[in-house]
Amino acid sequence: MKTTDQPSDGARDFDFVIGRWHTVNQRRLASLKDSNEWETFESTEEARRLPAGIGNYDDFRPINWRPGFAAMSLRIFNPETKLWSIYWLDNKTGGMDKTGSLQAPVVGKFIKGVGIFEGDDMWDDTPIRVRYKWSVLSADSATWEQSLSADGGKTWETNWIAHHSRVRD
Hints:
The protein contains no helices and 10 strands. The chain is an all-beta fold. The protein has one domain (15-166): Calycin beta-barrel core domain (Lipocalin), CATH 2.40.128. A hairpin with a 2-residue loop joins strand 8 and strand 9.
C-alpha cells in the first residue's frame, strides 16, 4: 500500500539546527550608512530542543571577536498560526528594549527550504524592519542572512551573513 507524505505544519522546520556548528560570519561594519566594509570572524553554536517540541535555542560564541560577547537565539513555534518567532538575546542588551520588555521577534516560516522571518526593530534610534533568511543547503550546511530596511521593506541591505557547517563528533 502506497502512503503519501502529510504536509508539514512547520513545527519541525528548525530541526536541522539541532547540534553543534562551526560558523564563518561576514558582518558589515557600518549598517545603513552606505558602507561596504565587512569583517569576517568565526563562531561556534550549539542548538538544543525545548521541551514538548515548542521550539529550540542556540548559543552563539564568537572566536576572537568582541571578547566576552555571548548571545543566543530563541525560536518558538506557534501551532495556531504555524509561524515561528525568533528572539535574539545577548549580554549587551539582554535582548530587551528600554522598558525592560523582550524586544519584538522576527516572525515567519519556511517555504521549500528557505525561511523568511521579519519584524520591527530600532537601529541607532531609527525604526527599521529586520529580515532573517535561513537557507538549508544540506543536512550539514546552512546559511543565515540578516538584512535591514529603513524604508518599510521596499529595499533591504544585508548586514550579516553566517555560513554554518555542522560539527560531527
